[in-house]
């Protein structure tokens, strides 16, 4: 059997597995927690110790917001693996790259030199949009990134912005789209060193372990515990994916919302509050003897 066919069988098996190995106790607790949320919500949780899962709208397509930077990362790492880019190579910033906002890279002067590795860091750590769009172009356009994602077996995760043929999807989902299952599975496969090669996955884990935006789901995890994460936010959608390398019971979770009634940007936003509560619930469920 061809490798691609084998992988699709593997991915189908994963989806079948999470449907058959549901943690009913945890699912009940999560359903009670999210009851009454004013918007659409999708959650995927998997114990990396037992393989048991909780899937609530886990195959529903949601906006990625800044979680799209995970697929962009894959596109850049693939270029590095092919020798078309090098991790520490100097690249030249141009004013034309600026995406208006409060990003760090946008404060650079025209023709200023910066290492590719630092631009990747800014994309993932501070979620710098100027850096991200630059890296999307360096990865060879959204079309090429989507081909990589498709080759990895993912049906719904795609880059939409600045990607010919995906204008209608961009109108609905914005910069990118994914499902809670697919985004969580990408992070899990990086953790298990199943994407590209071991060294690439190690590099991606180090990059994903430096998240500046640590006041939502990450805030419920003890600071001495390793977490690989990315989050995203636009007015009506908030999202976060985390692989928590807990000492006794590691787990991965992805929560995404859309059509949110509460579109505020303060800490008490309904979706962000729910994300913190979900993260706390999971930490105490999987690590009951390590209260935080």
TrEMBL record:
UniProt keyword list: Hydrolase
Pfam families in the record: Beta-lactamase2 (PF13354)
Alphabetical GO biological process terms: beta-lactam antibiotic catabolic process; response to antibiotic
Secretion signal span: none
Organism, scientific name: Lacibacter sediminis
Catalysed reaction, written as an equation: a beta-lactam + H2O = a substituted beta-amino acid
Top-level EC class as recorded in UniProt: hydrolase
Limits of the Beta-lactamase class A catalytic domain: 42-257
Name of the protein this chain belongs to: beta-lactamase
EC annotation from Swiss-Prot or TrEMBL: 3.5.2.6
Domain of life: Bacteria
InterPro entries: Beta-lactam/transpept-like (IPR012338), Beta-lactam_cat (IPR045155), Beta-lactam_class-A (IPR000871)
UniProt-listed SUPFAM superfamilies: beta-lactamase/transpeptidase-like
Similarity remark: Belongs to the class-A beta-lactamase family.
Entry's Gene Ontology molecular function annotations: beta-lactamase activity
């Amino acid at each position: 059997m061809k490798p691609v066919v084998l992988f699709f069988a593997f991915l189908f098996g994963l989806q079948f597995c999470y449907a058959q190995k549901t943690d009913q106790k945890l699912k009940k607790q999560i359903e009670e927690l999210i009851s009454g949320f004013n918007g659409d919500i999708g959650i995927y949780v998997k114990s990396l110790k037992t393989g048991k899962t909780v899937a609530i709208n886990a195959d529903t397509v949601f906006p990625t917001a800044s979680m799209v930077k995970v697929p962009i990362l894959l596109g850049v790492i693939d270029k590095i693996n092919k020798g078309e880019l090098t991790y520490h190579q100097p690249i030249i910033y141009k004013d034309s790259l600026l995406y208006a906002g409060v990003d760090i890279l946008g404060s650079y002067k025209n023709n200023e030199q910066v290492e590719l590795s630092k631009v990747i860091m800014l994309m993932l750590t501070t979620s710098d949009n100027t850096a991200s769009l630059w890296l999307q172009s360096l990865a060879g356009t959204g079309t090429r990134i989507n081909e990589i994602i498709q080759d990895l077996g993912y049906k719904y995760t795609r880059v939409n912005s600045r990607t010919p043929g995906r204008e209608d999807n961009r109108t609905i989902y914005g910069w990118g789209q994914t499902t809670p299952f697919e985004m969580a599975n990408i992070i899990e496969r990086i953790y298990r060193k199943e994407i590209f090669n071991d060294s690439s996955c190690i590099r991606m884990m180090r990059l994903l372990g430096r998240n500046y935006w640590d006041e939502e789901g990450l805030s419920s995890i003890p600071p001495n515990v390793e977490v690989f994460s990315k989050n995203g936010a636009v007015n009506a959608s908030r999202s976060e994916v985390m692989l928590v390398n807990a000492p006794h019971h590691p787990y991965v979770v992805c929560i995404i919302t859309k059509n949110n009634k509460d579109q505020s940007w303060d800490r008490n936003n309904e979706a962000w509050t729910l994300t913190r509560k979900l993260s706390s619930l999971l930490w105490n469920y999987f690590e009951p003897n390590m209260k935080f």
